[in-house]
Amino acid sequence: MADGEGRAVRFGIIGCAAIACTLFRAIKLAPNATLVAIASRSLSKAEVFKSANGVEDSVTLYGDYESLLDDPSVDAVYIPLPTSLHVKWAVAAVEKKKHVLLEKPTAMNVAELDVIIQACEVNGVQFMDGTMWMHHRRTDKMKEFISDPSLFGELKTVHSNFTYLADSNFLANDIRLNPNLDGLGALGDIGWYCIRSILWATDYKLPNSVIANRNPTFNDSGVPLSCGASLIWDNGLIATFHCSMQAQMSMDLCVIGTRGIIHVNDFVLPFDETFASFNHCSDSRFTEPIIGWRRPLPREEVVQMEIPQDARMVVEFSKLVVGVRDEHRSPEMKWAAITRKTQLVVDAVLASIENEFKPVDVHQG
Amino acid sequence: MADGEGRAVRFGIIGCAAIACTLFRAIKLAPNATLVAIASRSLSKAEVFKSANGVEDSVTLYGDYESLLDDPSVDAVYIPLPTSLHVKWAVAAVEKKKHVLLEKPTAMNVAELDVIIQACEVNGVQFMDGTMWMHHRRTDKMKEFISDPSLFGELKTVHSNFTYLADSNFLANDIRLNPNLDGLGALGDIGWYCIRSILWATDYKLPNSVIANRNPTFNDSGVPLSCGASLIWDNGLIATFHCSMQAQMSMDLCVIGTRGIIHVNDFVLPFDETFASFNHCSDSRFTEPIIGWRRPLPREEVVQMEIPQDARMVVEFSKLVVGVRDEHRSPEMKWAAITRKTQLVVDAVLASIENEFKPVDVHQG
């Protein structure tokens, strides 16, 4: 049997958050995955989700999470619960030998995340977080570009921002702003992507230190609504990011090397599901006299998508699950390592904010 | 006589730096300006410039700066000398009642700049610095957009970067990297534009404090090759910038309000001289489920140019000069005020670098 072409991975979804609708569709679109069960805190909530999303009758509904985890027909679970509940339910799932696709932010801190990752290692299950843009074909194409020394040279700086304008209802009620549920606020919700994009650009080389930007904003419960940071490496490399729930939507990534540059303004959620593009340029110079840019100018590269990035994430996760389930392979631990580095930087940003914006050293630990 | 439509302003150029070629062309293209004299440190240097640029025989060449300043046929001077010489020669020009178009960075620090500005006030001459992009019609259009509350809302954040890759010859020989000539390095050469763009976006509201980014790089003489900073205002507004002579060319500006956003990737020198564009978007939202952006997506607005931004700068400066020269108007001091705020932030970035990246308060003084 060819790699990852086994029987479809049977998914259960634990929790019916808004993002569960996205993954419900993604599992449907992924040829190597199938949804078999949905659990919510009550059966009625699961039924509301079923009717709102047109869930097939073949999918079992559960009114509690444990019962889904006890269902032997479930290979893997997608967990979109509030972040503070991740460690409990991810570990519970892993101990029932369920492979785990865990929504981001993955944990309240790296200590919690380590409990989850360790449980995955002990139980031999696949772990992946729900950072969808990592699985877009554009991301692969951009990586090709920045990995080519003749096009890109050596990485020098990265800037990323992800902002959106939360309305008053969201600010008052969303779990992402409740310190008892998702205390990481904008940093966990969207700063996560900026940090991931920076680590992605550096080939996951952890920065030596992280310095939070001054002027973060918080809600009355102390949950971040906007913040940012600079990340510093030994060799002069610097990256900055800004995230906010209080500004017009942006999802910008700019990666600059000595010889090349890429720009993308929809890196997390592409404007269109069937294609996406990025702008790149290599070896630009000034004209003489200095009145403009010498040709060639930055060019747009368009990447077509047969299935959207969320479905491609499910496909890639499911291939790994099939490898473990049917082919006695070891789980692919690179995804856990990437998640852990992201969480380490999230923790460092918060620590820097709490420590009066002093630099916080980042250690693999 | 209509505003600024008097006899053409008669320009002298003091110094034959590379950027003088740009202004030589700009003066030629500006209908209300004419070049009458060029001075260099020696007549032979002026003659080289003349033959390299096709300077008309009607233009007087001088082998020293004083003689040009003594020429009564010169109304205004453009000064592209190394920054450390600005205070001496700008003041000398002003005391001869010459209006001054001063290349940026305008001075080594605000104390020097204040000497220049005060001399302009005392002598009643027009001052403007050579920040060309301020005079592009696109800049006006972008300002219209961010000034419209229904399109842009309230300003929340700005990010700007300007980078280019200096070659080894430039790094070894360019005056911008010689501490005895232009000790501000990348900060003065290109960080100047980033800082100006941030101030422009805030309607020239000075930040409360400036914090330099860690990891600046310097040449062996201690001149900055790359650096950046965050600028902080009381109301939660934050802006960041990065400038470098060690990375592929970029000239990015992203301005984000609560309701709108603009992106431009060639804000200092447009890709094309006859038109330029910027992308803008208002009131973007996520789709439900969260798989993308709701329409309308960001749109490109194209602005046509009859004459390039450098020529438009000369036109606008010359109009003001005609007002003073022929119509007994007072010089327009807004340009000096904008220059001064830019220089104050430049100074604060350097002070923060020198003070171990601590915040530096910015005062109007």
Automatic annotation (TrEMBL), chains A, B:
Domain Gfo/Idh/MocA-like oxidoreductase N-terminal: 9-128
Domain GFO/IDH/MocA-like oxidoreductase stretches: 151-262
UniProt name for this protein: Oxidoreductase
Pfam families: GFO_IDH_MocA, GFO_IDH_MocA_C3
Sample GO molecular function, one term: nucleotide binding
Transmembrane stretches, start-end: none
Protein family according to the UniProt entry: Belongs to the Gfo/Idh/MocA family.
